[in-house]
């Protein structure tokens, strides 16, 4: 094997390993931040400013930290508990027939969420002294919730099973413009698959199931600034991706071809800063904006019928602060705290996704086994605010909202455990006056 071909083979092999791990992802939670064990340990504080190869998910410019060739494989277990109580009403007065109908409420739904394993993988190879090629494979969006067969919500077509799976391939390139400025640019190739059961709509019979999938395309971009030694400032962007999901809709047991159009997933902008306080201690901070207000309304089309499915979400925000301390040359510990503002408010919160604002508490560490191998671990506990689930009694032209007649509440908490292995091959040449050594992971 020629030495000139080895780097290309390393990169292709790493990408294949990433694809195999990513194909098994079953993610919980519609937007999945859990893409880095390193970042998990500090509530992702400062992740857009680097720290690990997996930082490229938020900012492709951080690829500038790759030495020669690096590979990172991440596995994250997400253990979710979402308890839902349907509080009422016990009966509902419909215009037809003109007498009360029992609804089966109140009803304790129990835990509707499903635990998940979220894999991710990254590879980077330095093409020249200033240019780095990388690839990341992730599952950035996912949702699995399920209500029992005896749920009154299922009986009235308000809820059932919701299952969203995604797979995103993200090739990227970083260029060190100067010794203090690095730019990054990448592409997104994203597959999404969606299945909803027991979905009712105002002007049609009860829809038993909606199935659909689609490929969409987007980009990533970023900038990394090092204004002085020990200070890194990063800003990353992941573009929105438009999906038109082709598949089938099943109505009263009869299937027909369908399309779910304008299922638009949000732009995401992430800011991060890492500041060295001493030779052994660093602080990190970050903020993230998700353009979920783009997720306004999708249109279900079947048999020449167009049915709007309104979502009407707001933008989401996430803020985090963390610290990192080098205990020894081989061991680093970190911790962080974060707070997330949900894009779903009381007026639009459905039983399918009873999301609310949440507090993050995280801790983790890195162990450097050798110059070539290191390991990251991270743990996060998330506590969400109690979520009120409102009902609508409006039976006008638009019919009832996603929760129908039912009002209730949801209470959630999450345990997240993440681990990763990192491999580094090769070594950088010694710095020269014309090309100083950049900070490496």
Task: Compose a concise summary of this entry.
Helix content is 6%, strand content 53%. It is mainly beta. The radius of gyration is 24 Å and the shape is elongated.
Number of helices: 3
Count of individual domains: 1
Query: In CATH's first tier, which class applies?
Result: Mainly Beta
Question: How many strands appear in the DSSP assignment?
Answer: 23
Name given to the CATH architecture: Beta Barrel
CATH homologous superfamily caption: Outer membrane protein transport protein (OMPP1/FadL/TodX)
The coarse overall form would be: elongated
Helical residue percent? Answer: under 10%
Strand adjacency order, main sheet: 1-5-6-8-9-10-11-14-15-18-19-20-21-23
Q: Give the oligomeric state.
A: single chain
Q: Let me know the average pLDDT.
A: 86
Strand content: over 45%
Class from secondary-structure proportions? mainly beta
Give the SSE layout.
Layout: H1 6-22, H2 37-40, E1 69-88, E2 91-93, E3 100-102, E4 107-111, E5 116-126, E6 131-138, E7 143-146, H3 152-155, E8 161-176, E9 181-199, E10 207-228, E11 231-238, E12 245-251, E13 254-261, E14 268-276, E15 281-290, E16 297-302, E17 305-310, E18 316-326, E19 331-341, E20 358-368, E21 373-384, E22 387-389, E23 407-425
Antiparallel strand pairs: 1-4, 1-5, 1-23, 2-3, 5-6, 6-8, 7-8, 8-9, 9-10, 10-11, 10-12, 11-14, 12-13, 13-16, 14-15, 15-18, 16-17, 18-19, 19-20, 20-21, 21-23, 22-23
Description:
This protein is 6% helix and 53% strand. The longest helix has 17 residues, at 6-22. It has helices spanning 6-22, 37-40, 152-155; strands at residues 69-88, 91-93, 100-102, 107-111, 116-126, 131-138, 143-146, 161-176, 181-199, 207-228, 231-238, 245-251, 254-261, 268-276, 281-290, 297-302, 305-310, 316-326, 331-341, 358-368, 373-384, 387-389, 407-425. The protein starts with 5 loop residues before the first helix and ends in a 16-residue tail after the last strand. The model is unreliable at 7-29, 393-400 and 428-440 (pLDDT under 50). The protein has one domain: Porin (Beta Barrel). The protein contains 3 helices and 23 strands. It has 441 residues and is mainly beta.
């Amino acid at each position: 094997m020629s030495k000139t071909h080895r780097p290309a083979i390393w990169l292709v092999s790493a990408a294949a390993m990433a694809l195999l791990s990513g194909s098994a992802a079953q993610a919980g939670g519609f937007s999945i931040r859990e893409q880095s064990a390193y970042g998990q340990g500090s509530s992702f504080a400062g992740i857009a400013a680097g720290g690990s190869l997996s930082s490229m998910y938020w900012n492709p410019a951080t690829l500038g930290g790759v030495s020669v060739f690096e590979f990172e494989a991440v596995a994250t277990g997400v253990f979710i508990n979402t308890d839902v109580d349907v509080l009422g009403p016990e009966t509902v007065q419909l215009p037809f027939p003109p007498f009360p109908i029992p609804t089966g409420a109140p009803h304790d739904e129990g835990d509707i969420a499903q635990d998940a394993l979220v894999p991710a993988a990254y590879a980077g190879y330095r093409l020249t002294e200033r240019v780095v090629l990388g690839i990341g494979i992730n599952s950035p969006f996912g949702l699995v919730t399920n209500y029992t067969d005896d749920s009154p919500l299922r009986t009235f077509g308000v809820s059932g099973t919701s299952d969203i799976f995604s797979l995103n391939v993200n090739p990227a390139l970083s260029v060190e413009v100067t010794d203090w400025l690095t730019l990054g640019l990448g592409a997104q190739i994203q597959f999404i698959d969606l299945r909803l059961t027991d979905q009712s709509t105002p002007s049609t019979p009860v829809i038993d199931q909606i199935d659909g999938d689609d490929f969409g395309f987007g980009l990533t971009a970023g900038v990394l600034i090092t204004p002085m030694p020990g200070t890194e400032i990063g800003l990353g962007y992941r573009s929105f991706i438009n999906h038109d999901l082709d598949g089938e809709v099943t109505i009263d047991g009869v299937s027909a071809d369908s399309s779910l159009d304008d299922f638009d997933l949000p732009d995401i902008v992430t800011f991060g800063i890492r500041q060295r306080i001493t030779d052994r201690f660093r602080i990190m901070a970050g903020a993230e904006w998700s353009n979920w207000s783009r997720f306004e309304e999708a249109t279900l089309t079947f048999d020449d019928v167009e049915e709007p499915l309104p979502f009407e979400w707001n933008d989401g925000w996430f803020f985090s602060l963390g610290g990192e301390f080098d205990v020894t040359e081989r061991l680093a510990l970190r911790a962080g705290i974060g707070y997330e503002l949900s894009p779903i408010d009381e007026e639009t919160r459905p039983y399918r996704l009873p999301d609310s604002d949440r507090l993050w508490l995280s801790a983790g560490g890195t162990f450097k086994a050798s110059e070539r191998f290191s390991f990251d671990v991270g743990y996060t506990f998330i506590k969400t605010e109690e979520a009120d689930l409102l009902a609508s009694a409006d039976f006008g032209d638009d019919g009832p909202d996603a929760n129908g007649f039912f009002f209730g509440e949801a209470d959630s908490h999450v345990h997240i455990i993440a681990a990763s292995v990192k491999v580094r091959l090769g070594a950088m040449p010694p710095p020269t006056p014309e090309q100083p050594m950049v900070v490496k992971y």
